[in-house]
Amino acid sequence: MSRNLVTSLLDHGRIQTTEAKGKELRRWVEKVITTAKTDNVAARRAVDAIVEDREVTDRLFTKLMPRMKDRPGGYTRVLKIGPRLGDGADMVLIELVDR
After folding, report:
1. Is 39 helix (H, G, I), strand (E, B) or coil?
2. CATH code of the domain in which 8 resides
3. Are 35 and 60 a contacting pair, CB within 8 Å?
4. Angle at 59 between CA 67 and CA 68, to 5 degrees
5. What is the pTM of this model?
6. 98 pLDDT band (50/70/90 cuts)?
7. Would you call 17 helix, strand, or coil by DSSP?
8. Structurally, how many domains does the chain consist of?
9. Residue 68: which domain range?
10. 32-35 long-range CB contacts below 8 Å, 24 or more apart?
């Protein structure tokens, strides 16, 4: 499930999820983007092991990384949007900072 969330966030740039999943997703995405900063075969394979879609991996290395190359960290933003109507779970909007 975490790999699916990472792939969706990198594909769409912004997703809505529960607060617990959003906090865990932030850890995964930060590690993936930090790994992608060094554009070599080993980094591409490490990212490809987590990101499930090859097109999203290519887009990460070609379009996202040039914008985030100089950023030392903090690639994501988590915004609380309130409780879900069905069960009252706290919902968040997690997005990439440089969209």
Report:
1. coil
2. 3.90.1030.10
3. no
4. 15
5. 0.91
6. confident
7. strand
8. 1
9. 2-96
10. 32/6, 32/60, 33/60, 33/64, 33/65, 33/68, 33/75, 34/73
